[in-house]
Design brief:
Elements: E1 6-8, H1 10-16, E2 26-28, H2 37-50, E3 60-65, E4 68-74, E5 77-80, E6 84-86, H3 92-96, E7 105-116, E8 128-131, E9 134-139, E10 143-147, H4 162-175, E11 183-195, E12 201-205, E13 208-215, H5 221-236
Parallel strand pairs: 6-13
Antiparallel strand pairs: 1-2, 3-4, 4-5, 7-10, 7-11, 8-9, 9-10, 12-13
């Protein structure tokens, strides 16, 4: 429910997001939500452990017997499985290589800037979007997040770069010059799994009915990830799935050079 969507003027926009510069008008969507990725991950892990899951960290490889996937090995510890769900992000092709499966997905580097305004409560400020392909959002007590870059061709290079940080700062201060004196707390860098056509891969691996793949969400992972996880679990349990998965089929034909134009 997006709530009562309204047009707001320059003064109304600055009342909601004080650092804003002069704007012509804005659209206020009161039902928009923000997600703290750290809290979401921690909550999901805690919930899984509560229901009996064991969390194991390390490098993984698929176990195979007579052409079938029988489980996963992590740091020389084997785990037998009736079904394996592959959610390894930008590294998915490395895990799937023994199956002869290769997806049109590559890493897309994202650099995101974390700022703070001492003695200013930023928690009620809304998400700010609609400028370039970047955004700003806030968390209490005084944190502002600005970003993020969408860098094609980055490979697995997760460095913070001067150009990436500059592009985020330039966009942020162009729209919200009131952030000029904000404290720079940190820059976070991540590698998104971006598919060539911008749509996720969600479904069974070709030729391996018990291998479920969910990857390629690009910059929409936080929004689409939870539902994709539900669908992957339903597939693993051979349950009915309400959504039409055809557009997200793992074996759909995609030109890999389309990655250059994907958002």
């Amino acid at each position: 429910n997006l709530g009562d969507v309204t047009m707001i003027d320059d003064a109304g926009a600055r009342a909601m997001f004080p650092p804003l510069g002069t704007i012509v008008a804005g659209i206020h969507v009161p039902g928009a939500a923000r997600v703290d990725g750290d809290f979401l991950r921690t909550s999901l892990v805690a919930g899984a452990e509560h229901f009996g899951a064991r969390i194991v960290s390390g490098s993984a490889r698929l176990l195979m017997d007579r052409g079938s996937v029988t489980g996963v090995e992590v740091e020389e510890e084997a785990f037998a499985a009736d079904a394996v769900i592959v959610t390894t992000g930008a590294w998915t092709n490395q895990l799937l290589a023994p199956l002869g499966v290769s997806l049109a997905v590559e890493p897309q580097r994202g650099q995101i800037l974390h700022l703070s305004l001492p003695r200013v409560d930023t928690s009620p400020w809304p998400i700010l979007g609609g400028f370039s392909d970047q955004y700003m959002l806030t968390f209490g007590p005084n944190r502002i997040v600005a970003g993020a870059t969408r860098e094609h061709g980055s490979g697995f290079d997760s460095r913070m770069t001067a150009g990436g940080v500059k592009s985020v700062v330039d966009q942020a201060l162009k729209v919200a010059p009131g952030l000029t004196e904000a404290t720079v707390d940190e820059v976070r860098v991540g590698l998104r799994p971006l598919s060539a056509d911008g749509l996720p891969f969600l479904g069974r691996a070709p030729g391996f009915e018990n291998v479920i793949i969910a990857t390629g969400h690009g910059p929409t992972g936080l929004q689409l990830g939870p539902y994709s996880g539900l669908v992957a679990a339903q597939l693993a349990h051979s349950q009915a799935v309400e959504a039409d998965l055809a557009p997200f089929a793992v074996d759909r034909t995609i030109a890999r050079n389309a990655l250059k134009g994907a958002a």
